[in-house]
Amino acid sequence: MTRLLMLAACFALATPALSASAQDAAAPAAPAAPAADAPTTNAPLTGNAETGRALTYTCQGCHGVDGYRNVYPHYHVPKIGGQSPEYLVNALHEYKRGTRRHPTMQAQAQSFTDQDIADIAAFLSELTK
């Protein structure tokens, strides 16, 4: 029951920001499809911090609270601003795969593409506070 309430509160906090940001943010252009004979690489994606800024609007619902605490006084929300891009990329991919567990974070990560994750990491890693 507590987990359900925590999930509902996080979504309730993020919903107003989601509505405002969705109206203000322009949809990023879709990348061009690679040619059929183009070689594939495993090179890490380069993140765009400006795109990442637009994608992190829901993160502020929990991680943007002073002291990094959400509405539950006994639940510490980790600091994500200023973390290394590698840490952030790995964490989001682990949530997406389900190897790192937190229902809200897993739901959020499922909605991100690999490029979204790189963009988010680029933006958050530049924050100093």
From TrEMBL:
<keyword id="KW-0408">Iron</keyword>
<keyword id="KW-0732">Signal</keyword>
<keyword id="KW-0813">Transport</keyword>
<feature type="domain" description="Cytochrome c">
    <location>
        <begin position="47"/>
        <end position="128"/>
    </location>
</feature>
<keyword id="KW-0349">Heme</keyword>
<keyword id="KW-0479">Metal-binding</keyword>
<dbReference type="Pfam" id="PF00034">
    <property type="entry name" value="Cytochrom_C"/>
</dbReference>
<feature type="signal peptide">
    <location>
        <begin position="1"/>
        <end position="22"/>
    </location>
</feature>
<dbReference type="InterPro" id="IPR036909">
    <property type="entry name" value="Cyt_c-like_dom_sf"/>
</dbReference>
<dbReference type="InterPro" id="IPR050597">
    <property type="entry name" value="Cytochrome_c_Oxidase_Subunit"/>
</dbReference>
<protein>
    <submittedName>
        <fullName>Cytochrome c553</fullName>
    </submittedName>
</protein>
<keyword id="KW-0249">Electron transport</keyword>
<dbReference type="InterPro" id="IPR009056">
    <property type="entry name" value="Cyt_c-like_dom"/>
</dbReference>
